[in-house]
């Protein structure tokens, strides 16, 4: 072929790409305009990059949207949600129709203001809080490498991210890119929408970082391109796939590309363009079509691109068939998140706890439980935010994950609590693993946005929060959680479990791992607690609250959690000696208790005086103790000192419980 003919062919190809990209632009500005709300600028600016990615590089199959070996695409800049909605519709995902596009941002729509996991196929994660998507993607890319080490025939794919300036300003992005570079996640490619615009105006109002050097310093390969040059985009993506480190491509784009007066301006970022501006954009883009209309030839080109993955999916099926029967069964079990009977699995450990009555800290009994679980469940992936020796997440089956060996089962996240939880979210979303990660409970504040998103998405992972009260002692109030239990309990669809002894710890792990659509926080002590339970025939923790020690003719009920249950039982004994009968209720999980029927709840709480005991703030306990009840706990921050002295200082003692009950009765 002559150079002239080749240039002519390239020109025809470019014209086709331009029209395909303009379909994204038109749908995006039309949907935002109809909704009178949204962010048209980013989809219009990144349409060219997305077109090349989805037509040439991204391996996906709309007919098999949950195909395990699909490339993952994460729109970290979730405000530009019309980009992904347009792409899903254009490439032929069956559950994304033109009516869904027209229904953008309306109540009950799949096309929510920001992409939400579970609303439509092809949306890999919930994004919107900036930086979360890129951190989730690090978890996905890590999960891919770990699964590839175990099942090279079944898993070998890329994770692509479109991130904006806001994603890179958020602190979580630094934690995430540092971790990705350290682990050398070479199947991770970030496309930065380098448009130099934020809501307030030009980004130089607030930042002057050299992002290329920043990523490079974290161990990434980097490249800068014109984000509207189809050839440059194509070549950059081809180059990215050849690198042995994660890649960041800075795509210099014009936000709101095509808009006559608002392109390149923050005015196109977060509000509709307006009828006149859209008319001008249509003229500039040579888009002579009605609202929400995509011409047949353009739609056919997009649908053809969507069909590329069909052959790849069939090839993948053949590769999976190469696994032996046992390997294939295990791959399918773990990828689908199926787990065996946990109660039976932990039966031996529970028996040993009851027989030996070790009276250990619940962080230590949790470690004993994890010894059993990690041996039986290879999909269980542990980790901690640089507190491995303190939080009990390292087991006897410990094998670290590293850039040299992804076949391990333990991730050293470093002092990166937020990225740890966000990466755990990404690992869970990818499939194939159930992650758990630990730090001190007080540092759940650093991870809270990601914990909240796990609950919002309805995904299973476990946040282990140890040193869960003033009982941690000498580290003082900076490390003593006071408001954290109440704060975490306020998050919908989150289980907060605070076990009182080894049996409740085992039961808490059973519950956390059995809830496929709910994340969990397991709150554990630093200090030793006595073994209280003497049977395990029933998972009583699953009820949320139950009578752990009963007395006939009880005049009061003492409700406690975690380390304070043993104090309640000691107080019960003293009161019994004085002829005052009280019941003691262990309430390891208020959410699970609230889910029980009214009759059960009333039978547990009793009709007499109710006293709640928890070495934390009292917010929320009024729900259980009523107006005339008593709360014994914290009404201030803690202090530095030995745990036993702190409990006395703040009045969380057997003597005070007895005193309060006697006075009220």
Architecture overview:
The chain has 665 residues and is an alpha/beta fold. The protein folds into 3 domains: 10-315, Rossmann fold; 342-523, Rossmann fold (3-Layer(aba) Sandwich); 545-664, Rossmann fold (3-Layer(aba) Sandwich). 44% of the residues lie in helices and 13% in strands. It is built from 27 helices and 18 strands. Strands 9-8-10-11-13-12 form a 6-stranded parallel β-sheet, with helices on both faces. Strands 1-2-3-7-6 form a 5-stranded parallel β-sheet, with helices on both faces. Helix 5 crosses helix 18 and helix 16 (362-376) packs across helix 21 (502-514). The chain starts with a helix and ends with a helix. Mean pLDDT is 96; it is low at 1-8.
Helix proportion: 40-55%
Number of structural units classed as domains: 3
Number of strands: 18
The residue-averaged pLDDT reads 96
Q: Which consecutive residue ranges, at least 5 long each, have pLDDT under 50?
A: 1-8
- Stated plainly, the CATH topology of the largest domain is called Rossmann fold
- Top-tier CATH class of the largest domain: Alpha Beta
The main sheet comes to: 6 strands, parallel
User: Which strands sit side by side, in order, in the main sheet?
Assistant: 9-8-10-11-13-12
Number of helices: 27
Q: Supply the CATH architecture of the largest domain.
A: 3-Layer(aba) Sandwich
Radius of gyration: 28 Å
Structural class by SSE content: alpha/beta
Coarse shape:
elongated
